[in-house]
Amino acid sequence: MPSKILLVDDEPYIEDLVRQKFRKQIKENQLEFEYVSNGKIALEKLKNDDSYDLMLTDINMPVMDGLTLLEKLRENNILTKAVVVSAYADLSNIRTAMNRGAFDFITKPIDLADLEATIKKTILEMEMLRKGIEASRNLDDALLQKAEAQQKTLETLLEKEKLILQQNELLETQVQQRTAELQQQKLLVEEKNKEILDSIHYASYLQRAILPSEEALSSFFKESFVLYQPKDIVAGDFYWIEPVENGHIIVVADCTGHGVAGALLSMLGISLLNHLVRDKNITQPAELLNQLRIEVSRTLNQAETHAAEGMDIAVCHINCSAKQITFAGAYRPLVYISGNELKTLSGNKIVIGGNNISPQQEFINQNISFDDATTLYLFTDGYADQFGGEKNKKLMSGKLKELLFEKHNLPMKEQLTFFSDYFKKWRGKNDQVDDVLLLGFRCQ
User: Fold this and answer.
1) Nearest-angstrom CA–CA distance, 14 and 164
2) What is the DSSP string of 6-41?
3) Same domain, 160 and 277
4) Which of 14, 19, 21, 22 is nearest to 57 (CA)?
5) What is the pTM (predicted TM-score) of this model?
6) N or C end: fewer C-beta atoms under 10 angstroms in the chain?
């Protein structure tokens, strides 16, 4: 009969490694291995089958870890010998394992020769234990076999204690050396992290410097506010305002991604808008988006790279004297409230960016008239997509529009305070999922 070994580890490659090492013994029916992925399954098998000679178990596993498994074996009086095989070979884990009945401890990466020797020694020990149990049931030679088993067990325990003491001394030296190495590595990582964070913080300063200031926005629209809250230090959301003939162009955009990648794309968007409006004098929103779509794809070489980076964007040309707004959008809307009624101009479902530019797809201008009481809002999807509230779900665009309608008559500074506080309360302890940009204004 082969010696049965239960292998308990949540890393599948361990099973392949062991089966490859002992393929000859398995083929010759000397050893039989069974693999399970956590301590709970192993415990049930050992409770129901006492024929296992040896259990090889990892420490760090889901559901039930190896140290807990050792404690459960002892509580259930399971005789199968346990050998711990783990990368967590610090002195504390070794002592805990031995105190909970482990027969031996092997460190990862596994020394296969050491593993083979340990298996042989453990199987031998288990055979001795089984013989001792069998002898205790045999009235003819119970006393003799019991005495021999006790003597051999004592010798094994003394040898094991000596080995543990030697291993402890060696491990203490290794721990001290490793601690010094880790401390040095920690200092290097902290230094690199500080350099990276300093660089990103400076990039945030540059990004905010490029965005229109609150004073600039107020000079164009006396009644206005901007809620700009990046998910990370820098953001992929941006807004842009430019005075043109017969009014102003105002833009709100959400670039692919957030953090550094989104911020780089936002800088590209602002640069291209400056070029198209200031140099090429393109002021109609639909034509501006058509050209922006081409320029983003060309600049990022998307025809060859097939990359899909781009942006969702809303563009308004506002003629305050004529009380007229021309709007075009790429997946972003314009929401406005007039005559105590909330209305939405939806953008076209055309992507800015990517290499699939079709001449049949063009953005369309939409025109509305407004009065001094009309309140207008442009925003990205970060506010509505935030998880929170009592049920920990997304806020959703419908709820955002309800809030906009409810608070649209407030002065803009009070609206800014409300929407900032509401977002913080809604989010609660959740992480912010995306950049947040909400811009509101009245043309008075």
Assistant:
1) 25
2) EEE-S-HHHHHHHHHHTHHHHHTTSEEEEEESSHHH
3) no
4) 14
5) 0.58
6) N
What average pLDDT score do residues 199-214 get? 66
**Per-residue pLDDT tens over the stretch 230-268:** 998 888 889 999 999 889 999 999 988 767 777 888 898
Do 165 and 281 lie in one domain? The reply is no
| Residues 290, 361 contacting (CB under 8 angstroms) | no
Cα dihedral across residues 148, 153, 154, 158: positive or negative: positive
Of the pLDDT bands very low, low, confident and very high (cuts 50, 70, 90), residue 200 is: low
Residue type at 300?
Answer: L
CATH number at residue 409: 3.60.40.10
Q: Specify the DSSP element, H or E, that contains 291.
A: helix 285-299
Nearest to 253 by CA among 262, 243, 242: 262
Q: What's the pLDDT band for 285 if we cut at 50, 70, 90?
A: very high
Answer whether residue 72 is part of any domain: yes
- State the CATH number of the domain containing residue 103: 3.40.50.2300
Same domain, residue pair 349 and 265: yes
Same domain, 219 and 109: no
pLDDT at 363: 94
Give the whole-number percent of the chain exceeding pLDDT 70.
93
Give the domain extent around 406: 212-442
Number of domains in the chain: 2
Looking up tokens 């043109």, which residue turns up? Answer: 244
